[in-house]
Every structure is written in structure tokens, then in C-alpha cells.
Design brief:
Layout (H helix, E strand, L loop, with lengths): L3 E7 L16 E2 L2 E2 L1 H9 L4 E8 L18 E4 L6 H11 L9 E4 L9 H11 L5 E7 L4 E4 L5 E5 L5 E10 H9 L9 H6 L6 E4 L12 H12 L1
Helix pairs in contact: 2-4
Length: about 230
């Protein structure tokens, strides 16, 4: 039986948030934003270990108490300039700890709303898939394509369009190879790297509470969602 591991790329800054503090360390209900991703993954019974990929110069991680998760949690100071580089470096760093056919769940540090129910659904629907899959939600809003002056160029069909979320779950060997073969290309998520190899990831229904904190106003929304759960 394959094992399950989680990897959180957390070496970025989050420029769209503004301010001087990296986004993953912004306070949400008195805890750093990344705490909630770590907590959700560490508490799931199927996940053997959670790796957090940090920037080599990160000085903030150690300023927080992570002892509650010490049995599962391991920081890796090998993050890159881009998200996919952090994931690739993290996979390389754990090659001696993870089997080729083990599952790796890559989750954004800035998605604090991940629930145990969503993790159960992802693992349950993807665990027997030959390629892997990801949480996602069907696009509900009307989509407009803009021109250079931010005027509507046309309306895009939203049929069969999904908004990707995380975790994105792939076999260790497949994901490592997909990221190693990019040859200078930039990908925005793991599924895109796997797509470039000709594989089709499975879409698993997520929900909007698993949203990504991107802008300053998103902090309030995250607090409402998390506060309601508590």
C-alpha cells in the first residue's frame, strides 16, 4: 500500500497582499496563516508526514510554536523563486524518505479553509487513479476576456471550466519527473506540469471555503470561515 505525504510550498512573499510580512505569516485569528494548512494536513490520519518548503533565509518559521505537530511536521529550507521550484526542490529533498509510488499532496500555505472532509474526498477519489487529481470547483461566474485597455473583448464559455484548488495529489515519481522536465517553462500548479507529459488529472469537487488568501480583504473572509468552524 502506498503512503501519503503532504508538501506545503511556503517560500514566497505574496506581493499582491502588500506590506512587509510574507503572506504565510500574516495573523489570522491570532495564528500565522500557514498554521491552518499545517493543522489540517497533520491531523489527517492517512498522511504520514507534512513537509513545509521554506526560503533558505526564512527567520520567521522558528519564531512560532509548532510542537503540537512535531511528530509529523518537518521544515525544509530549500525553497525557490517560483512555486514550482519550491515543490521541485522539496521533492528532491525527500527522495530518500518517500517511495516512487507514494502519494504526495501539494497544498497552498494560503488556503486556510481545507477541511478533513475535503481531504477524505480527495484521497478517496484519487487513491486508485493511475495519474492523480486535485480539488477544484466548477466556474460559476460569467467570464470576460479583456483587451489591453481593460475593455471586454469577448465573453468566454464557462462550460466544463473548473477553478483549480489544492491539495493536488500525484504519485511521487510522476510528479518529480514532470517538474524535472519543464526545461525552462513556468507552470502555475502541479497539474499543469503533469498535463505537459500527456496525463489527465482527475477533478474532485472542492468548495469555496477552500479559497486562497490573495488580497488584504481576504483575511477577514478567512477569519469568518475559520471562526464559524470553531
Amino acid at each position: 500500500m502506498p503512503n501519503y505525504y503532504a508538501l506545503i510550498p511556503a517560500a514566497g512573499f505574496g506581493s499582491r497582499m502588500g506590506g512587509e510580512t510574507p503572506k504565510q505569516y500574516l495573523s489570522v485569528l491570532g495564528r500565522p496563516l500557514i498554521h491552518y494548512a499545517v493543522e489540517a494536513l497533520c491531523r489527517h490520519a492517512m498522511i504520514s508526514r507534512v513537509y513545509v518548503v521554506l526560503a533558505p533565509e526564512d527567520q520567521l518559521w522558528k519564531s512560532y510554536d509548532w510542537s503540537t505537530f512535531s511528530g509529523k511536521l518537518k521544515p525544509l529550507y530549500c525553497g525557490g523563486a517560483e512555486r514550482f521550484e519550491s515543490v521541485r526542490n522539496g521533492l528532491d529533498a525527500i527522495r530518500d524518505e518517500v517511495g516512487f509510488d507514494d502519494w504526495v499532496l501539494v497544498h497552498d500555505a494560503a488556503r486556510p479553509g481545507l477541511s478533513g472532509e475535503l481531504l477524505d474526498r480527495l484521497v478517496g477519489e484519487v487513491g486508485e487513479d493511475p495519474f492523480g487529481g486535485l480539488l477544484a470547483v466548477p466556474v460559476a461566474d460569467t467570464l470576460k476576456r479583456a483587451d489591453a485597455d481593460n475593455r471586454v473583448l469577448r465573453t468566454e464559455l464557462r462550460d466544463k471550466l473548473w477553478q483549480a484548488q489544492t491539495p493536488q495529489m500525484f504519485r511521487y515519481g510522476l510528479l518529480q519527473r514532470a517538474l524535472s522536465l519543464l526545461d525552462g517553462a513556468v507552470v502555475t500548479d502541479e497539474a499543469q506540469a503533469v498535463e505537459r507529459m500527456g496525463f489527465q488529472a482527475k477533478l474532485v469537487a472542492g468548495d469555496m471555503t477552500n479559497f486562497k488568501v490573495t488580497y488584504p480583504q481576504d483575511i477577514k473572509l478567512a477569519e469568518l470561515i475559520l471562526g464559524g468552524r470553531e
